[in-house]
Amino acid sequence: QVQLVESGGGLVQPGGSLRLSCAASGSFFSIKTMGWYRQAPGQQRELVAVITSSGNTNYVDFVKGRFTISRDSAKNTVYLQMNSLKFEDTAVYYCKVQGEVAPNQVYNYWGQGTQVTVSS
Q: How confident is the model over 28-50, as pLDDT tens digits?
């Protein structure tokens, strides 16, 4: 119904930047809220940022001022621009979208995850 393909992860030095992308495809009426989560080794998955269909954004405190979430609704794609990366940003990053697959039927879908490693 909704397939997500993530890209953009990799290895970066502290202070560097990366841009993650997550493209949704498949059969659906609309994509509603889109977001990014991350999971570090031995840790629970945690929210990073979300963006609604109207463009409202919300960030967790530890990325405010460094990360920017955006979306291209025409392409059903969400982005995460990550600047000033720190060692502690190392994690697998997952996108999650709310897909409306039928009228008033909205489900959550997860991407496969992309590794971000911050290391010198």
A: 999 999 999 999 999 999 999 99
Cα(83)–Cα(18) distance, rounded to whole angstroms?
Answer: 7
Query: If you write DSSP's letter for every residue of 36-93 in order, what string do you get?
Result: EEEE-TTS--EEEEEE-TT--EEE-GGGTTTEEEEEETTTTEEEEEE-S--GGG-EEE
Residues 3-33: tens digit of each pLDDT: 999 999 999 999 999 999 999 999 999 999 9
Q: Are strands 10-12 and 114-118 parallel, antiparallel or unpaired?
A: parallel
Record the tokens describing residue 42, joined without a space: 């031995």
Q: How far is CA 71 from CA 14, 43, 59, 115, 118, in A?
A: 26, 27, 15, 20, 24
- pLDDT in the model for residue 19: 98
DSSP symbols for 3-14:
EEEEE--EEE-T
Q: Are 27 and 45 in contact (CB under 8 A)?
A: no
